[in-house]
Fold:
Amino acid sequence: GKLVDILNIQQSDRLRFSLLHRVMSATGQSHYSELVAIIGGMGPAAGVKLQELIVSRRRDVKIDRDHIPVLAYTNPQIPPRTGPHGDKSVPEIIRSIKSMERAGATRYVLACNTVHIYAKEIQASVSIPMISLIECTVDHTIKVLG
Structure:
């Protein structure tokens, strides 16, 4: 479940997402087996920047519908992640992820490095897997530096 894997998702003929399936069936667009939720609002621009990177870094896109389906949720109500009360952000982050689960997301990305300190607690409270920015960074560094 690495971001690199998400960027190379294989197309699937059987899309079964509630919201996305209805939209794509009506428009005849490409079908994917994943729907990635970007949880932003922890620095409102971070989620927007992450989505921009996902779109701009795809080298195999020939037409618009070749892009990965993404749900972007910017929740500026998430409390500060730093300081002695950083853990107070966790319940609101979990609520945000669960909202995206109900909308059909199959994976999520937290667009905030700091909040990854609570990744295990967050992951234990939701049913879809997280794409860890920290793990992706480590994997990429090892790949580049050997």
The CA atoms of residues 30 and 66 lie 6 Å apart. The longest helix spans residues 44-56.
